[in-house]
Amino acid sequence: MATVLVSVGATDRAAAMDETVVVPSRPLPVPKTVSPELQRLIGSPMNPSWDQHPASAEAWRALVKTYAADIETVLPALMAREKVTIRADRMNGVPVFWVEPETVPSENRDRILLNFHGGAYVFAPGKAGLRDAILLAGRGFRVLSVDYRMAPDAPYPAAIDDAEAVWKAVVARYPAKRVGVFGSSTGGAMTLALVVRAKAHHLPLPGALWAGTPWAQLDKIGDSYFTNDHVDNALVSYDGLLGAAARLYANGHDMADPELSPVNADFAGFPPTLLTTGTRDLFLSNTIRVHRKLKQAGVVSDLNVYEGLSHGDFERDPDLPESREVYGEAAAFFRQMLAR
């Protein structure tokens, strides 16, 4: 199996810190404690696209189009496997997709799940953002996925404005406590930020949340942004496409704002929340810090940390045994919490 060579230095890691620990270069073996399928993924090359820095809005749009086309090629097979259908709709002027299983269990007929896709506030428009939704719909839920506006054409606060608009439409039709909200990566951050916005505007709150590896700290603050730099083979490093997307979406706004970095929010009164991450995830600290703040606020919260997972591995490779476990746990969590 392949190994990753890790080298951490003071000059290019944490200039804002008073002190740094210099870690010697060392081999990082693929763990034997994960499934053979995940071992192969961990041993695969780093994401070759991580270090792109598009120089113009046109360059960003071209990259978005290329990535979306790649994702959309795999969706028909995924839909067939999960036995779901997709229907386009609009809510309060915002495009959405209904992703529905062939059969909805009787216990879920008066429940829906609201989904926000990942993609760094830039990527996965349209149907390209539906993988997460398909994988939970396949476990017996009607899922409403929001095709929110994104940078470069619509930076902050466009995405959260669209999220609020759809949420208002949803709670006008369904009891809020029968609605679960979920998303991974950027979608996980938007799941949390929606509650921040809903609290501020005195709107009803959802019955439960699942934030998969949430981008809860938009700027480069948190231990695993440094410790898992070039260990996470999906995002690889903040200092590439990820950081460029953060700056593009924030568009000069303070990244500490809880709508951009929901880890900075007041978590009092949040719904029960499930959080998912992995030991190699660049967003491991984001997820852990949210969990600690939820617990400190007295919120029912469960943190699942998977051995060896990099950022979003459960979504990008749904055939992993670990991925099936992730989505199974999320479905079980919603069944339990939305039955209250």
What are the defining features of this structure?
globular; two-stranded antiparallel sheet; 340 residues
Q: Could you please describe the fold and organization of this structure?
A:
This protein is α/β, with parallel strands linked by helices and 340 residues long. Helices cover 35% and strands 18% of the residues. It is built from eleven helices and ten strands. The protein has helices at residues 36-42, 57-72, 75-82, 131-137, 158-173, 186-200, 224-227, 238-250, 284-296, 313-316, 321-337; strands at 3-8, 23-29, 84-91, 94-101, 112-116, 142-146, 179-184, 208-212, 273-278, 301-306. The strands form two sheets. Strands 3-4-6-5-7-8-9-10 form an eight-stranded mixed beta sheet, sandwiched between helices. Helix 3 packs parallel to helix 4. The longest helix is centred in the C-terminal third of the chain and has 17 residues, at 321-337. The relative contact order is 0.14.
Outline of this structure?
By secondary structure, this protein is of the alpha/beta class. The chain is built from eleven helices and ten strands.
N- to C-terminal distance: 46 Å
Strand content: 15-25%
Say how many strands there are. Answer: 10
Task: Write the element-wise H/E pattern from the N-terminal end onward.
Answer: EEHHHEEEHEHEHEHHEHEHH
Give the mean pLDDT: 95
Strand line-up of the largest beta sheet: 3-4-6-5-7-8-9-10
The structural class is: alpha/beta
Query: Low-confidence runs (pLDDT<50, min 5 residues)?
Result: 8-16
General shape? globular
Number of helices: 11
List the helices and strands and how they pair.
Elements: E1 3-8, E2 23-29, H1 36-42, H2 57-72, H3 75-82, E3 84-91, E4 94-101, E5 112-116, H4 131-137, E6 142-146, H5 158-173, E7 179-184, H6 186-200, E8 208-212, H7 224-227, H8 238-250, E9 273-278, H9 284-296, E10 301-306, H10 313-316, H11 321-337
Parallel strand pairs: 5-6, 5-7, 7-8, 8-9, 9-10
Antiparallel strand pairs: 1-2, 3-4, 4-6
Helix pairs in contact: 3-4, 5-6
